[in-house]
Amino acid sequence: MNQFFLMREYVRQILHEPGSHGFDHTLRVMALCEYIGKKEQADMDILIPAAIFHDIARPLERSTGVLHEVKGAEMAAEFLNEISYGSERISRILHAIRAHRFSTTLLPETLEAKILSDADKLDAMGAVGIARAFMSAGERSGDIQDGLDHIHGKLLKLPDRMYTRTGREMAKRRHALLAAFVQALEEERQMERDPV
Fold first, then answer.
1. pLDDT (tens digit per residue) in 138-169
2. Coil, strand, or helix at residue 3?
3. Which domain holds residue 158?
4. DSSP codes of every residue in 114-172
5. Which of 19, 113, 117, 173 lies 20 to 30 Å from 160, alpha-carbon distance?
6. Residue 132's domain is classified under what CATH number?
7. What is the pLDDT of residues 47-80, one digit of tens each?
C-alpha cells in the first residue's frame, strides 16, 4: 500500500472534526505543495509527508496549549519511524513541520520547509483564506471584526513572508483578492457607523 496513503489516513483519523484547520486544509496544503514542489524541483518524499503531518497536532494545541508544530513533529516522528520511513528523511520532514508556522521563530532552512511554509500561507490568502479567517473567528466565538482584525494582523502581511519564486507569484493574485475584499467589507461596514 502507498505510504502517502497510509499517512493521509492516519492524519484523517485525528483531524476528523471540521474547522479552519481541518483535514480539508491539510489536503489543500498538500496539493499546493505538490504544485510548488514540482515547479521548484523539491524532494517529494520529504515535502508531501511534511504537508500531510504539518497540522496534525492542532486539536491538541487547542486543548493543551502545546505548540502544534512541536507536538506535530513528535507525532509525525513516531508514525514515520513505525513505517520505517528512514531517519534522514524523517529528520528533514520534522524540520519542515517545526518551521512551517507564520509565528514561529524557527526559520525554514531547506527547500521543502520553505515550500511547506509558502503553501500553508497561500491557503490563508485568497477566497479560501477569507472563508477560513471568518471560520476561525467563529471558532473562537468572535465576530466579523475579529475576522477582519486577523486579516489585518496577519493575512495581509503574508506576501512579504513567501520564500519561493512560485509561492511569491501565486501570492500576488491571492493577496489582490484579499485586499479587494477587505476594502469592500470596510466600505460596507462604514454604513453601520454612518447610516443614511
1. 999 999 999 999 999 999 999 999 999 999 99
2. helix
3. 3-193
4. HHHHHHHHHTTSHHHHHHHHHHHHHHTT--HHHHHHHHHHTGGGGGGG--SHHHHHHHH
5. 19
6. 1.10.3210.10
7. 999 999 999 999 888 888 888 999 999 999 999 9
